[in-house]
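re: that chain from earlier
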Amino acid sequence: MGFQDTPEEWQVTATETPFTGNKTSVRTDEVMMPDGTVVRRDYQVHPGSVAVLALDEEGRVVVLRQYRHPVRHKLWEIPAGLLDIPGENPLHAAQRELYEEAYVKAEDWRVLTDVYTTPGGCDEAVRIFLARNLSEADGERFAVSEEEADMELARVPLQELVRGVLAGDLHNNCLVVGVLSLATVLAGDGIESLRPAEAPWPARPFEA
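^ sequence. v structure.
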């Protein structure tokens, strides 16, 4: 099967949820180690997310700038959002996020990559899509509020974003992974080598 991650689950002898928030919670598990000792592991329980690297015909990526309070920064990001509905098809969620955040639709969709954002402390899984053949969306614009009310939109050449990532100027996880993945694909096997948009996602199973 080649060089790949493999599923494994160590025995949990006890578990509790000391905090439950609006979208996520914190869980404490007592986990048995290979030597028989039991340790406590605290982690955030997350529903999962999708992100969209939307690439236009001029080789520019749709990005947005948004305030992120935990890190006290305005970050340049690609459109993204939570999988709010258990079992939701991630492609449908990604199409919704691209419409709501950028008022854009795309005709060609592929899976760019799947990642665990912070596996040492959170179970969040993110599927990053590549979207092409862009056009302006139809219908009313999505009403924004809170941090999104201050959001800026731009289209930036892919290579400019790559340079920003490598210079340490851009830090958003999905943007970093997305632009470096796409640059690698374009320099290697090409976009046709990417998985189809409905490819299985064991980290967050869904109905097609």
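The mean pLDDT is 94.
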